[in-house]
From TrEMBL:
Protein name as catalogued: MFS transporter
Cellular component GO terms, alphabetical: plasma membrane
Protein source organism: Streptomyces acidicola
GO BP: response to antibiotic
CDD domains named in the record: MFS_MMR_MDR_like
PANTHER family attached to this UniProt entry: EXPORT PROTEIN, MAJOR FACILITATOR SUPERFAMILY MULTIDRUG TRANSPORTER MFSC
Length: 527
């Protein structure tokens, strides 16, 4: 009789399904934590006195930290134990959530979100990498699908959950909701998850991690602070210069590394490059819209937080429907026409949305949000799948890490850049000519501030001017998004390979005397 190994015994342990359930619950929380904050932004602007720039940092602090630390966090789990690092990540996330419920000014809230970003960077990649030690090949696909679907399902739930909480409790409840769910996840990991590691994985490169975190942080700082300080101010120019130097140093260091943490050389694969570009652009626009729309729906449209969550569902619904449809279309036509069509639909939706007017009603908004969601689904889902299909199998681990990192960077820059465009246009066009200096500053800082000043001073004309200025800013952003989507659609139509599912990926061009067939690189992704 064959001996049952320890790994086989773990894979037969009935408790593994309870552990999977806890992981699904944890991922669901992390999924809706990406969007739950958006419906709270107008409330936080009023109750915390946060400016538009501070609101951008509240959202971006989480994403910047997550994007910068995701790869090194995954490598820590590979080397020192995935279960151990997963528990540590959930603990850090829990600490950030608890801290967020106890503070009442924008600065500490930004700090709390950054701490939660550190925890998420550990949890999300390791939540998938522990599954092979729990499930055999015949069950693993179901487990992976359950974990990934729970995170995807959390995103449309976020605005609804946030809306319900904000309609009945204070803004800190959006942090408090994380506490019991994450605590359950920690308990399940402690008692149910087996330990696993991969000692052969690359070492964490502390210098590369510092370059990426500081470089991305400096870039986002410059974009967010530019509307208030001026694009030509020494602080903004200095931050952009520092960002360029740090990110250039990161690229040089990673290209010279034998086993890089962030394998930039994968961008030599044309399919990976342009599919990643499409997925990153989609995340850029999606994140920017989710930052901008709640303020429009609540302050200009007059809805409450839960109503805002409901009004965002057409975009989420369009995305989910077209994501399923895109899989069938790719099998028939290949990824190039599907991704290109998705970007073209996104361009049309953005230009349609740029026609929004202050008194136009929700029906028109629902129309272009639905079309935008369809464009996102058609472009992003097949682009992500084709990006990984466009590289050799031994580079899939590296490719997935680079793809996820670039998408998160796209989301952070989308919030920073598109939010700054809205803030800059709004600040230039809101009429504060006859207001006292302090009231004028408050009105220019945010739409919520302008409405508060208008109510206190009995100036309905100021509220109308602020609404019109914000809609002008939103229209400018949508035109920019439309142009970006159109350029990306043209690039993918001309340059994107049309590799069908199951076809062999194209070989990458040789670099500096390197022979691709003789110099394969071992994947360093998480096992």
């Amino acid at each position: 009789m064959a001996t049952v190994t320890h790994a086989q015994d773990q894979r037969r342990d009935p408790r593994r399904w309870w552990a999977l359930g806890a992981l699904v619950a944890s991922m669901l929380v992390l999924g809706f934590d990406m969007t739950i904050l958006n419906v709270a932004l107008p409330t936080m602007a009023g109750q915390l006195g946060a400016s538009t720039g501070e609101l951008q940092w509240i959202v971006d602090a989480y994403i910047v930290v997550f994007a910068a630390l995701m790869l090194p966090a995954g490598l820590l789990g590979d080397r020192f134990g995935r279960r151990r690092m997963l528990i540590a990540g959930l603990g850090v996330f829990l600490a950030g959530a608890v801290f967020g419920t106890l503070v009442d000014t924008p600065g500490p809230v930004i700090a709390a979100r950054a701490v939660m970003g550190v925890g998420a960077a550990l949890v999300i990649p390791l939540g998938l990498s522990v599954l092979p030690s729990m499930f055999g090949p015949e069950e693993r696909s179901k487990a992976v699908a359950a974990v990934t679907a729970s995170m995807a399902a959390g995103m449309p739930l976020g605005p609804l959950v946030g809306g319900v909480l904000l309609d009945h409790y204070w803004w800190g409840s959006i942090f408090l909701i994380n506490v019991p769910m994450v605590a359950i996840g920690i308990a399940a990991c402690v008692f149910l998850l087996p330990e696993s590691r991969d000692p052969s994985s690359p070492k964490v490169d502390v210098l590369s991690t510092a370059y990426s975190a500081l470089g991305l942080g400096a870039l986002v700082f410059g974009i967010i602070e530019a509307p208030g300080r001026g694009w030509g101010s020494p602080e903004v120019i200095g931050s952009f210069t520092l960002s360029a130097l740090l990110l250039a140093a990161l690229v040089v260091r990673e290209r010279r590394a034998v086993r890089p943490m962030l394998d930039i050389r994968l961008l030599r694969h044309r399919g990976f490059l342009f599919n990643t570009l499409a997925a990153t652009l989609g995340t850029f626009v999606f994140s920017g819209l989710l930052f901008m729309l709640p303020t429009y729906l609540q302050e200009v449209g007059g809805t409450d937080a839960f109503g805002t969550g409901l009004r965002l569902l057409p975009m989420m619904g369009g995305l989910m429907v077209s994501a399923r449809l895109s899989t069938l279309l790719v099998v028939r036509a290949g990824p190039r026409p599907v991704v290109t069509a998705g970007l073209a639909v996104l361009c049309f939706a953005a230009l349609l949305g740029s026609r929004t007017e202050t008194g136009g009603g929700y029906g028109f908004t629902a129309l272009w949000l639905t079309v935008a969601g369809m464009g996102f689904g058609l472009a992003m889902v097949p682009a992500m799948d084709a990006a990984l299909g466009g590289i050799p199998a031994e580079e899939a681990g590296s490719g997935s890490g680079l793809l996820m990192t670039l998408r998160q960077v796209g989301g952070a820059i989308g919030i920073a850049l598109l939010g700054s465009l809205v803030a800059g246009t709004y600040g230039d066009r809101v009429d504060t000519a006859r207001l006292p200096a302090e009231a004028a500053d408050a009105a220019r800082a945010s739409l919520t501030g302008a409405h508060a000043v208008a109510e206190q001073l009995g100036l309905p004309a100021l509220a109308r001017s602020a609404d019109s200025a914000y809609v002008d800013g939103m229209s400018t952003v949508l035109v920019v998004c439309g142009i970006a989507a159109l350029v990306a659609a043209l690039l993918t139509a001309v340059l994107l390979p049309n590799q069908r599912p199951g076809e062999a990926p194209e070989p990458a061009p040789a670099m500096d005397g390197e022979t691709p067939d003789l110099a394969p690189r071992q994947a360093h992704g998480r096992q």
